[in-house]
Amino acid sequence: TRCPTTDGTFTPDVNAQRTVAGATPAANVDILSPDLKQPSIWKANLAFEHELPVGGLVFGAELLATQNKNAIFYQNLNLGAPTRIGKDGRELYYTPKGYEQGCWDASGNSSTSLPGCGSLRSRSGSNQSFANVLVATNTKKGGSSLATLQVSRPMIGGFAWNLAYTYTESTEVSPLTSSTSNSNWAGRSVFNPNEEVEANSSYLVKDRISGSVSFQKRFFGAYRTTLGVFYEGRSGKPYSWTTNNDMNGDGLAGNDLMYIPTAFGAGEVAFAGDSATSHANEEKFWAIVNQYRGLRNSAGGVVKRNNSFSSWTNSFDMRISQEVPGLWQGSKGVFTFDILNVGNLLNKKWGRINEVAFQSNGAQARSFVDVVGLDTQGRYIYQLRDKVEDLDVRQAKGESQWALQASVKYEF
Known about the structure:
Blueprint: E1 27-32, E2 40-51, E3 58-76, E4 84-85, E5 91-92, E6 130-139, E7 143-156, E8 159-172, H1 181-186, E9 199-200, E10 207-220, E11 223-234, E12 238-241, E13 259-260, E14 270-271, H2 280-289, H3 293-296, E15 301-302, E16 308-309, E17 313-325, E18 332-340, H4 342-346, E19 354-355, E20 358-359, E21 363-366, E22 369-374, E23 380-384, E24 392-393, E25 403-411
């Protein structure tokens, strides 16, 4: 109900608050765990470099390891107790109507307006006087290990190059993708909503190859012309396979990790639209599963968070630099042109970053399945979507297009 307009609408006096008609809104509450500590890590690295006996080459190797001492993740204390446990061991929070297929529409949405479904509710055991009650707490789980090998040739005779490869393993309990407690809790894919489970980091770059080539020559007296090309190739951002709707009734759609049956015909999942003589939807499901390693390797269990990776990305940058005479002896000017993602300048399909888009529930998550209740055997009922969600071109800040930067520098 609208606030009263007489005698002011706000007072800071907690003992003289205005009376407003209507139901009291459910309050959101943020809590800091009493033993919460600032984030901190243990870190160690070891590096080795040696000049090789041929060609002036330099070999380098480096190991870097981190381990969380105090990381942060969020839990929601107002989910209530689970009302059922799924066949895969997952906690479920719906009222009984949430498990009936008749209370789900063709779009995979639960609806209280469907006949007999008025009592359907997620988070059925929660305290209705409150909305989210979120607590920030510490975890020691998570860390990373990186190994880099590099061979380089310093500038000799106007020519230099280097080539490096980095392999990374990195895990975390929560990616902390946001500045607010609610979106930090929601912004990860989960088996159970409040679990303290480490998985591949959302920021993991598992494989990275980088290299550069530089050429330098004095074409105009003592003034150098320099041409440099830098290459980076890296594995794509990790993502999770989830159900598209709210599978477990925690109030969040799109963050529930998908369960994959053992094999075709195992009977561990029911498929909406199939019958004893027709298995078209199950066949379609397995055709998709067998197409993606992250799904295929999860058969008989729940897909792990961030167990799949978007497409490999290649990019080239180029720099052209020319020194010119200065206004007096001992000074000079330098004109530089940097072309970023030069491959995209040559072909608009090159240099693109194709990845699973970020979503508020589940972070980087991809899907093609809705769960529309449980059958009489307690099995999940899978309702397939028309197709698998596509990869997006990352372009919010021009990451997938070429750019030119020109600069002038005067040295004296």
